[in-house]
């Protein structure tokens, strides 16, 4: 009789465990889906587009700074050479 009770308890615990895992998996899948929706909305938002424009402008400014720095160096070198 004791073995029967132990077996039944093990089955109940197993089914509870499996049910809980399924529940957690569903919650996880739902959160992933929600995150994807938020990400999609963010990509469509004006704010996101403005951030992309700012990043692009920062890259351009960085490139121009490097080019300007190089041209200053070449200008300085040519001035030194002429003197």
Q: What does this molecule look like?
A:
The chain has 83 residues and is mainly α. The chain has two domains: 1-44; 47-83. The protein has helices spanning 2-44, 46-82. The longest helix has 43 residues, at 2-44. It starts with a helix and ends with a helix. The mean pLDDT is 83.
Strand content range: under 5%
Number of self-contained structural domains = 2
Number of strands: 0
**Mean pLDDT value:** 83
Query: Judging from the principal axes of the Cα atoms, what is the shape?
Result: rod-shaped
The description of the largest β-sheet is: none
Helix content: over 70%
How far is it from the N-terminal to the C-terminal residue, by CA? 108 Å
Determine the oligomeric state from the structure: single chain
